[in-house]
């Protein structure tokens, strides 16, 4: 049995990961730490485990094998470096870190300690992603010219997001670094890593972080990636477009159907069956711990996600295009 320490309930998905720990036959919750002690005590009591005000004290427990990190984004580096040095395997909510430099420090600590790291990038493993990857692999769209992925909800106008999700210090951004992570890593999956990024942010509700965002990824071969995210849209379906010289792929307009039209597949639109989802990132993490394997692709995509988020934030702040080679590693 893998005994897991829950490190913070700051993130809105922390309870979801708690449920995954409880539901998995090979994991159990052993303790809770939270940067807000009152919240941590409440959760520890709920799950009948000890609460630790000191992160160091929790990590010093020899009977804790691993941790789930749902701490504020700006604490990710400090929390995960400590966890790695304590020999704890790490599962974390995205993003890995707000900057490439901090992400590199985490990965260096993980490598030195020999612990297993997996980042929650759930839409990588959904059935539609597997089906889209199959369409692209067979070349039905020809040379890819544009990918656009949009994910948006009404959290800022319906006021169901926690107030700390609008803290620039804690989150290192707003809609893009939170919700936009999913479109960002999908565009990265479809088109690869771009050369440069240009972003535009909107502040519809007047908070200190953006609640409406677009990031444009630019490639040497002329292709473009468009990442859209927002907290201010009531009925905006999750949607994917991939276009190429020979065809177009659409998903979520608005039904969850995958449609392809290709010069190589005859006339009209064709519906492509969705693929079988892969095991969740959490389940994959547990398997890596048990088998001594590495989440190589997951971690590489998570590192690229940090690069793209840092470049997007800098693009807005500096009002210019940011080339990825400018980022400090």
Question: What's the topology here?
Answer:
Layout: E1 2-7, H1 14-23, E2 27-33, H2 37-46, E3 51-52, H3 55-59, E4 66-69, H4 76-85, E5 89-93, H5 100-113, E6 117-120, H6 127-137, E7 144-152, H7 168-171, H8 175-178, H9 181-191, E8 196-202, E9 212-218, E10 224-230, E11 239-244, E12 247-251, E13 258-262, E14 270-272, H10 281-291, H11 296-318, E15 322-323
Parallel strand pairs: 1-2, 1-4, 2-3, 4-5, 5-6, 7-10
Antiparallel strand pairs: 7-11, 8-9, 8-15, 9-10, 11-12, 12-13, 13-14
Helix pairs in contact: 4-5, 9-11
Word description of this protein:
The chain has a nine-stranded mixed beta sheet with strand order 14-13-12-11-7-10-9-8-15. α9 (181-191) crosses α11 (296-318). The longest helix is centred in the last third of the chain and has 23 residues, at 296-318. It has helices spanning 14-23, 37-46, 55-59, 76-85, 100-113, 127-137, 168-171, 175-178, 181-191, 281-291, 296-318; strands at 2-7, 27-33, 51-52, 66-69, 89-93, 117-120, 144-152, 196-202, 212-218, 224-230, 239-244, 247-251, 258-262, 270-272, 322-323. The protein has two domains: 2-115, NAD(P)-binding Rossmann-like Domain (Rossmann fold, 3-Layer(aba) Sandwich); 123-277 and 310-326, Dihydrodipicolinate Reductase, domain 2, CATH 3.30.360. It has eleven helices and 15 strands.
């Amino acid at each position: 049995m893998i005994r897991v320490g829950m490190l913070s309930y700051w993130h809105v998905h922390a309870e979801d990961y708690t449920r995954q720990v409880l539901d998995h036959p090979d994991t159990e919750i052993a303790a809770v730490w939270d940067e807000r002690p009152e919240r941590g005590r409440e959760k520890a009591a709920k799950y009948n485990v000890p609460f630790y005000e000191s992160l160091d004290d929790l990590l010093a427990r020899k009977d804790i094998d691993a941790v789930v990190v749902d701490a504020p984004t700006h604490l990710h580096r400090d929390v995960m470096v400590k966890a790695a040095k304590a020999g704890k395997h790490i599962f974390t909510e995205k993003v890995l870190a707000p900057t490439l430099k901090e992400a590199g420090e985490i990965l260096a600590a993980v490598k030195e300690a020999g612990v297993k790291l997996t980042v929650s990038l759930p839409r990588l493993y959904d059935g539609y992603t597997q089906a889209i990857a199959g369409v692209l692999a067979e070349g039905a769209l020809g040379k890819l010219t544009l990918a656009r992925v949009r994910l948006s909800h009404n959290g800022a106008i319906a006021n169901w997001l926690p107030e700390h999700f609008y803290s620039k210090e804690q989150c290192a951004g707003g809609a893009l670094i939170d919700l936009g992570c999913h479109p960002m890593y999908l565009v990265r999956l479809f088109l690869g890593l771009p050369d440069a990024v240009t972003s535009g942010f909107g502040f519809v509700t007047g908070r200190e972080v953006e609640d409406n965002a677009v990031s444009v990824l630019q490639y040497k071969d002329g292709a473009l990636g468009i990442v859209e995210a927002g907290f201010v849209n009531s009925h905006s379906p999750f949607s994917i477009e991939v276009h190429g010289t020979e065809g177009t792929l659409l998903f979520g307009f608005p039904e969850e159907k995958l449609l392809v039209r290709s010069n190589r597949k005859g006339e009209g639109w064709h519906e492509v069956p969705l693929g079988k989802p892969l095991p969740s990132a959490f389940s994959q993490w547990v398997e890596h711990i048990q088998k001594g394997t590495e989440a190589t692709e997951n971690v590489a995509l998570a590192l690229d996600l940090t690069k793209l988020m840092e470049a997007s934030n800098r693009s807005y702040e500096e009002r210019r295009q940011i080339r990825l080679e400018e980022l400090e590693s």
